[in-house]
Amino acid sequence: MRDRLLGRPSGDRDWVVVGATPEAMGAAGYLPVGRDFPVFLHPRTHEEYALARTERKTGPGYHGFVFRTGPEVTLEDDLSRRDLTINAMAQDADGTLVDPWGGQADLAARVLRHVGPAFAEDPVRILRLARFAARFADFSVAPETLALCRTMVEAGEVDALVPERVWQELARGLMEARPSRMIEVLRDCGALARLLPEVDAMFGVPQRADYHPEIDTGVHLMMVLDMAERLGTALPVRFACLAHDLGKATTPADILPRHLGHEGRSVKLLGPLAARLRVPVECRELAELVAREHGNLHASAGFGAEALVRLFDRCDAWRRPERFEQALQACECDARGRLGFENRPYPQADRLRTALAAARAVDSGAVSAEALARGLKGPAIGQALQQARIAAVAAALPEGG
C-alpha cells in the first residue's frame, strides 16, 4: 500500500484476514506456514494470508511476545500493532483505503512516525526505522519517534536483540538508497553505540585535511557508504566500506590527525565485530582484505611490476579474482567518498585490473614444465613462475611496470 501511494514498484501483496480462525483457513485449503503466528498460503496463488492479530509483550527483546488471533480481532486492531504509520495502511478488496493512523498524511509530509506506544515493545523497530530512513532519503524522523527510540535504548531493549536479526536489518539497510541515513538514525538515538560501538567511535576523530577535507572520520564513513550505493555495489563491498577504517578510532592521540597503522588495527577490531553479528564469511573475508590492504591499493599507482605481483599474492588474487575486483570497488568508494573527490576518477583500479589480467594470463603449467626441464625443483619452480608474472605485468603496463 505504501509503495503504491508513493508511485513506487510494489512487491507481493500481503493479505490480512479478519473474522476467521486457523481451523477455518485450513478447511478452506489454505496451507499454514507461520511459525510464530498464523500465516497461510493461498492454495493456488501462494500469496500470504495472515490472520488479523494483536500482541502482548511478555519479556525483553523481540521474542518476548504473545500473539492473539480470533474472529473478534479487527483490521484496525491489527494495524495498531504496526511499527510506522506509513506501514499501517491497508486496502479493502473494493479499493477503499483503511488508514486509521494517518499514514497517508505522513507519506505526503515525508515523515517516519511510530503508530503508538506499542512501538517501544519491539527493539527491532529501531532497526527498521533506520532502514526505512535509508530507503526514503527525503523523509524525516518525527521528533517524538526519535525520542521514544532513545528511551528504548536507555532501557536496554536493543541489548536483547539477537545477532542474526541485527545483521539482517543492517545488511538490508546497507543496500538501501542512502545507507548513511541508517547510521545517522542509529547514532542519533544511541543505538549505534550499543550495536556497533566500533563504528560509533569513529565520529569526532579527526583526519588530515589534505587527504580528507571532510576531516571527521565518521563523516568520511558516511560518504563512503553513499558512494557504494551510487556505484551500485554488492553487499560484501558495502560491508567492507563500513569496516575499512575502524582502526582510526583507536589511533593514539599523540599522532593524530595522522593514522599510521590503522589498517592493522581495523583488521583487529573487525574480527570481534563480525563474530558478534555472525557476519557471513563472504562479507567478513572481503572486509578483512580491504581493511588490511586499502592503503596499498591506493598507493599502487607508484608500484612497479614486482610490488604489484606481491600485492596480488597477499590478496590471493590468483584464486579469487572476483574478490579482488570487489576490493577495487570498495577502494574506489573509499577514494571518492571524500569532500570534493566525489566525481574524480580512480585510475588505480584500471591499472591493477590490467596488471592482474596480464599476470593471470601466464601459463603456469608451461612455466613449471620449462623450469623442470632446466633442472629446477621445489621453491625454485615457484620463483620461476613469479618472475614470469612480473615480466608479464611489466610488459602490459604503459610505463613498462
UniProtKB/TrEMBL annotation:
Cofactor: Mg(2+); Ni(2+)
Coiled-coil annotated residue ranges, if any: none
GO molecular function list: ATP binding; CCA tRNA nucleotidyltransferase activity; CCACCA tRNA nucleotidyltransferase activity; cyclic-nucleotide phosphodiesterase activity; magnesium ion binding; phosphatase activity; tRNA binding
Binding residues for Mg(2+): D12, D14
Residue numbers binding CTP: R2, R82, R128, R131
The keyword Lipid metabolism belongs to this UniProt entry's keyword annotation: no
InterPro entries attached to this UniProt entry: CCA_bact, HD/PDEase_dom, HD_domain, NT_sf, PolA_pol_head_dom, PolyA_RNA-bd, tRNA_CCA-adding_enzyme
UniProt free text on domains: Comprises two domains: an N-terminal domain containing the nucleotidyltransferase activity and a C-terminal HD domain associated with both phosphodiesterase and phosphatase activities.
Protein name (record): Multifunctional CCA protein
